């Protein structure tokens, strides 16, 4: 089901009789494409690049000039939110088209009937597009091969040279405009940082409110466990795009400190958010079991709720691009210390295990939160496909 990959799970945090009430509902997951945050800038660049490519493409003498309609295509495909990605995609596009054109040209000399020839060239081109070096532009192998085989039958040499030359001309124009007027998705990064931190803080506030409520009170609003890892991943993708946008960007020096600050704040939110999701789901699962851990509305539940809500305040400050107040962090740390001392009293019963897990998770959050953002960043939740080379160390100025 496209676009509905994120889930929200609702589980009662109060005492449960028999099986817990669990409802699974799907929610729409927004696109992770960082280009969407710079849509107006990209639209202007694309329009300018396409128009200029059309003029220059038609100015090239025949036979290459006869294929000028490929120049705007190359220009638009080369436009990207970051210069580094624009160059990378242009090179991949050139390689994919050249490979596809070579396949199509070669099959012109293979005596196959029309339908069989088309099927064979598509089969070979799709296999060739599996080459990882081509990246996101791999689909152009089949396009180049099919266009050359079908449209270039009259004069395949002119067609191949014209198509590749015109697309390359357009791509060079797109890269040049991206270099001169590179977008920087600062606004998108700031908005996504604020939105994601608010999601994490709301999760904490909701859990605290549910633990403080009396049994039977606000039952419809007590089911608060939600999956937030997809939101954290989108935030990281956006910050990575912002970080990459500084490569070759003439404006990067002016915004470098802000980019560094957003990177550190995002890492803080991502790492705390991952722990928070685990904490809330653990609370929900333990409370929904046949032996619930906490009596809702008890002193222990209220102590835990206060710590969670204090942590929510700190997370919101990070998302609002504010320095964390030293008093707030010290207060949070003292409350965690007090909670640990309280839970130590339950060593002899089953409360000790989930309580110790909760304190450990809160200690992990404290280890991430600093009154002043540091430039020493521990990469959070690194996925196998994530390029660590894109994480450049920050230099304190």
From TrEMBL:
Domain of life the protein comes from: Bacteria
InterPro entries: Memb_transporter_dom
Membrane topology: Multi-pass membrane protein
Sequence ranges of Basic residues compositional bias: 388-397
Region called Disordered, residue ranges: 373-397
Keywords annotated in UniProt: Coiled coil, Membrane, Transmembrane, Transmembrane helix
Localization: Membrane
Domain Integral membrane bound transporter positions: 52-176
Gene Ontology terms: cellular component: membrane
Residue stretches spanning the membrane: 40-61, 67-84, 91-110, 116-134, 159-181
Coiled coil ranges: 322-349
The name this protein goes by in its record: Integral membrane bound transporter domain-containing protein
Biological source species: Aeromicrobium phragmitis
